[in-house]
């Protein structure tokens, strides 16, 4: 399949309808599972080196419709990383404290420390997706001069895209590697996964009637995803559109892209031993062996 970065990246002429949700004719689920096992180890090794180097951090942004496989992807892709090196943050309905700040604040305070990975399970893009499908939610933000959410200024969403682009550019200019993944699942596959939540007892807890209300707005969500990705996929913080009708294949592709991107950073290295320790290394070794 060649270069995964290039194959799945969204560009300025992005159209969501041109991106497949299923590529099982190109790679099997079984092969994807085998490949993922090796990629997990390679990503963990890179993160360990990054932790020691202590200059870069990685922000992984996951977006997708309900049932697209975000939770299981996080579990399977990052399971080999030392627990000190990866943090997962999930963003649900904003709390009252979060609403006392601008919409990016709650994401800003959860960004990764140097040397670490942070995975955003749903992201700051909810603010140009869910709030665009349900503009009445904007009233909770108490933005000056916004009194009719269905009659917003003409440039409101373009303004938010610009704010998000500026936010992400500042992060990357200061050593953060930002990777954004849209898990592209078909409406038919979502239907099957929602049915499994109703039919399989161990999955019953996942089902909510609200899932069906949001599903009824599928076309509107796809339109908003198309606009968000097209306007915010930048060289410093690209979007990758991941075929997600098969969860094992989706996980493999995300892991492959993460590895390909990080492998390009040749300046991430283990630090050299300080000169004063190097000079006395033999003495320290003898001291330990003599115990």
Automatic annotation (TrEMBL):
Keyword flag Phosphoprotein: no
Gene3D superfamilies listed in its UniProt record: P-loop containing nucleotide triphosphate hydrolases
Alphabetized Pfam families for the sequence: PPK2
Domain of life: Bacteria
Matching InterPro entries: P-loop_NTPase, Polyphosphate_phosphotransfera, PPK2-rel_1, PPK2-related
Keywords: Kinase, Transferase
Domain Polyphosphate kinase-2-related: start-end pairs: 27-264
GO molecular function: polyphosphate kinase activity
Protein name per Swiss-Prot or TrEMBL: Polyphosphate kinase
Biological process per Gene Ontology, one example term: polyphosphate metabolic process
Family, similarity comment: Belongs to the polyphosphate kinase 2 (PPK2) family. Class I subfamily.
Transmembrane segments: none
